[in-house]
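Hi R.,

Here's the chain you asked about this morning:
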Amino acid sequence: MQINITNLTTANLVLDLNFGDRRRRIRRELAAQESFDIGDLATLDELNREPTIRRLVAAGNLRVQAARESGDLPGANDFLFLAGQPYDETVIEVSFAAAATGAADDVTVVSSLPFSAELVGAELISTEPGLAGATGVLRSATGGAGSALSSLLPANRSVATTGVVVATNVATATVALNHEVLPGALLYTSDVTTNVAQANPVAVTSVTATTVVYPLTTGDGALADGAGFLHLTTRSESQLLTVPSLARGSAVYLRRSDRDFAGIVRLRLRRTT
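And here is the predicted structure, written out as tokens:
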């Protein structure tokens, strides 16, 4: 299983980790924004328990992210450690492909939760830019059965940019009036010179009537090609019906609308055991 560790700082970061076996001792200096795969040396559970990793993740200096590979099942292998999140919070991410249109269907987000938790946030992201009508509902069973864990979740939408200017790792994108982008919304970008990766969306810092401001690590000045798209995800804590409690062994499914689409669903869980 691939597990990527990324140095999120602007300086070199030295790691000295020991997982109880001389063959699994890691001494490495990561350059700024450098990543490496630690999956052959440690499990996610071991990384979650390692004090140095926990401290660096909580401080926003390090990201630990599992990348599901061919043959891996969705669920426990999809837990992500996100910079700045509390120690007891976990994110499950599952990618899904488009299916035949014309009927609702289900995506298995997690088939058996390995701990009890509260579901405190959810995001639904279409990976088909500009697709309209893509929605889903989180449920505890397939076929529309069981309990609804969220209200209707709209997938992301796209906003065209006509130019992007960067100053001190902050990008200002020029967009049309009535863009309806809100501060705090998550986005990734495409078709401009330097993009925000879909796998690592960033939060919108601020907006005006015709601009959207977001973090972007690159050189100062106008991007050579600033005509592209901001792909907005759904910040959907408010979409949850309550804060559902999920027992160990619980399942969570995404019930897709009949406008089937490819995308990503993310759950933010607060562990209670």
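One quick note: The chain has two helices and 23 strands.

Cheers,
M.
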